[in-house]
């Protein structure tokens, strides 16, 4: 096998296809599609990272309010996910144009998205300037899961999530769980 050297561009994959919600001080919501969403600390405390270009409207809102919600979408709303990534919320109500449903959050002002089976409310603990994006570190202050995605013991059933991932600029389904030997 021959290796060919190429310019690095999104070299780590897959990453979650995520809809991040935020709101201005008056409560006007916005949605941004991100592939740059990840776990930083998984337990004590739970910290989720998101990376956003400075020029984005959501960057401005999250910087001012210090809050956001990570909403993990299903394959059923993939078109809305694409659409939220292609238009700016500065002049457009993305909930109105996509038909997605805002739901009041328990702790933060930014809404949850009803159509997403998992929603994680976050409060910003730090912002780091890193290259062409700023990294927002958010402590998870509440998590919501659609009841139909849970088994009888309250454990999340991955097969019920309808999850998909962002891979090299495209959306891909996740396939099936691999068995261990």
Sheet-strand content, in percent, reads 35-45%
* Strand adjacency order, main sheet: 3-2-6-9-10-5-4
**Count of DSSP E strands?**
12
Average pLDDT rating: 95
Radius of gyration in whole Å, from Cα? 17 Å
- CATH domain class: Mainly Beta
Spans of at least 5 consecutive residues with low confidence: none
State the CATH superfamily name: Electron Transport, Fmn-binding Protein, Chain A
Order of helices and strands: EEEEEHEHHEEEEEE
The helix content is 10-25%
The N- to C-terminal Cα distance equals 27 Å
Major β-sheet, in short? 7 strands, antiparallel
Q: How many domains comprise the coordinates?
A: 1
Question: In words, what does this structure look like?
Answer:
The protein has a single domain, classed as Electron Transport, Fmn-binding Protein, Chain A (Pnp Oxidase, Chain A). The chain is globular, with a radius of gyration of 17 Å. By secondary structure, it is mainly beta. The strands form three sheets. A seven-stranded antiparallel β-sheet has the order 3-2-6-9-10-5-4. Strands 1-11-12 form a three-stranded antiparallel β-sheet, with no helix packed on it. Strand 11 and strand 12 form a beta hairpin.
């Amino acid at each position: 096998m021959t290796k060919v050297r190429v310019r690095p561009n999104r070299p780590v994959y897959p990453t979650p296809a995520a809809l991040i919600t935020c709101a201005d001080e008056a409560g006007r919501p916005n949605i941004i599609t991100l592939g740059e969403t990840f776990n930083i600390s998984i337990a004590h405390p739970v910290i989720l990272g998101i990376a956003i270009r400075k020029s984005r409207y959501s960057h401005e809102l999250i910087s001012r309010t210090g809050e956001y919600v990570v909403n993990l979408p299903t394959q059923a709303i993939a078109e809305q996910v694409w659409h939220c990534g292609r238009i700016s919320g500065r002049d457009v109500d993305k909930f109105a144009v996509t038909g997605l449903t805002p739901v009041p959050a328990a702790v933060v002002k930014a809404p949850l998205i009803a159509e997403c089976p998992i929603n994680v409310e976050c409060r910003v603990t730090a912002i780091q300037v890193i290259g062409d994006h700023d990294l927002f570190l958010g402590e998870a202050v509440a998590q919501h899961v659609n009841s139909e995605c849970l088994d009888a013991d309250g454990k999340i059933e991955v097969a019920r999530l309808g999850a998909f991932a962002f891979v090299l600029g495209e959306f891909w389904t996740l396939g099936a769980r691999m068995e261990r030997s």
